[in-house]
Amino acid sequence: MQREDRSVGGCIPNVTCPRTVTTYDGAHQTAQEMHFAAGGGPPSQIVAHMYDPMGRLVQRQAVSGTPLGEQFAYTGADQQAVYTNALTSQTRTYSYDALGNQVLACGPAPGACTGYLYDGPNVVAEYSSATLTPVLKATYLFGQEIDAQVARIDPTANTVHFYLRDALPTRQIIDQASAAVNDYEYEAFGKIFTQVTGLPNDILFAGRRLDPLSGLYEFRTRTYDPADGRFLQTDPIYQGVILAACSACWQNPLGCGR
Question: Model-level pTM?
Answer without folding.
Answer: 0.88
